[in-house]
UniProtKB/TrEMBL annotation:
Residues passing through the membrane, by range: 30-51, 58-80, 100-130, 142-159, 171-191, 203-225, 231-252, 259-278
GO MF annotations in UniProt: transmembrane transporter activity
Keywords per UniProt: Cell inner membrane, Cell membrane, Lipid A biosynthesis, Lipid biosynthesis, Lipid metabolism, Lipopolysaccharide biosynthesis, Membrane, Transmembrane, Transmembrane helix
Protein name listed in UniProt: EamA-like transporter family protein
Record domain EamA: where: 142-275
Entry's localization field: Cell membrane
Length: 279
């Protein structure tokens, strides 16, 4: 992985942490999630217009991406209803890199060195430990929902990684996925709460205007990176967004950071260093 790709994915991780800080601060998780998903439509449409068109062979992958992102959002909402953010989010994001690495090597035949696999494992261990170190008894239903969410994250990462390569235009590929993906989640949110979609700019303006653009930009960078480096390595590096989230929480939101989280962050950063210099 070159320095350009490495730093670009870290920027995407920072943007990802930023919009999550906006959304997680909302007491109305459905409105926040819907605002982010529907907010993707504008930057997605612009990407489709401004970047080269995708190869027609990419359309099945775009359809798969839309379906998997919808499943991810649905199960993430379920996990948030069943458990706390500090329990659910690290389990979901930390399990995904392991699943992507396993599928990439066993099914796709990606050639990852022992050091690269070790870097992915260390990053995943650091992220997972943030959730596992949480005090109090875990809710089994919340843990199950979080792990299913992790499966969806791994699945859409693989779908988007392969699809972006097939498309020949990775940003336009994600532009179509984001533009079309706003429809099913918007319909779902409208069914759950009639009239919600039209009220999103007022109910969740930060998530709708800022979060949608930040989230789109972050993942567009990641989809481009999928065409430049192994999908498993990009996925693992992207999930370091949780480290940025902890820093934002501590420095901006003045949240308490205990010794266990500091240790988990250190482990994650060791994994990042291994990944950068692994061959």
């Amino acid at each position: 992985m070159t320095w350009t790709v490495f730093l670009a994915v870290l920027l995407a991780a920072l943007l990802h942490a930023g919009w999550n800080a906006v959304v997680k601060g909302s007491s109305d998780k459905l409105a926040g999630m819907a605002a982010m998903a529907v907010g993707h439509a504008v930057p997605g449409g612009l990407a489709v217009l401004l970047f080269p068109p995708v190869d027609p062979a990419a359309w099945p992958w775009i359809a798969g991406s839309v379906a998997l992102h919808f499943g991810y959002l649905r199960f993430l909402l379920l996990a948030y209803r069943l458990g706390d953010l500090s329990e659910v989010y690290p389990l979901a994001r930390g399990s995904a890199p392991l699943l992507v690495a396993l599928f990439s090597t066993v099914v796709l035949g990606s050639a990852l060195s022992g050091m690269q696999l070790a870097a992915v494992a260390v990053i995943a261990a650091g992220i997972l430990s943030i959730g596992l170190a949480r005090r109090g008894r875990a809710n089994p239903s919340a843990v199950a929902a979080a792990l299913v969410t992790g499966v969806f994250i791994a699945a859409y990462s693989l779908m988007d990684g392969v699809g972006a390569r097939v498309s020949g235009s990775p940003v336009a590929f994600f532009g179509w996925a984001a533009l079309l993906g706003a429809i099913p989640f918007g319909l779902y949110a409208e069914r759950r709460r009639p009239g919600l979609v039209l009220r999103l700019p007022r109910l969740a303006p930060a998530a709708f205007f800022g979060g949608g653009w930040a989230s789109f930009t972050a993942y567009a960078i990641v989809v481009w990176a999928f065409t430049q480096a192994p999908i498993a390595l990009v996925t693992a590096l992207r999930e370091t967004s949780i480290v940025f989230a902890l820093l934002i929480g501590a420095l901006v939101l003045r949240e308490r950071v205990d010794l266990a989280r500091i240790a988990s962050t250190f482990v994650t950063l060791v994994g990042v260093a291994l990944l950068r210099f692994a061959r």
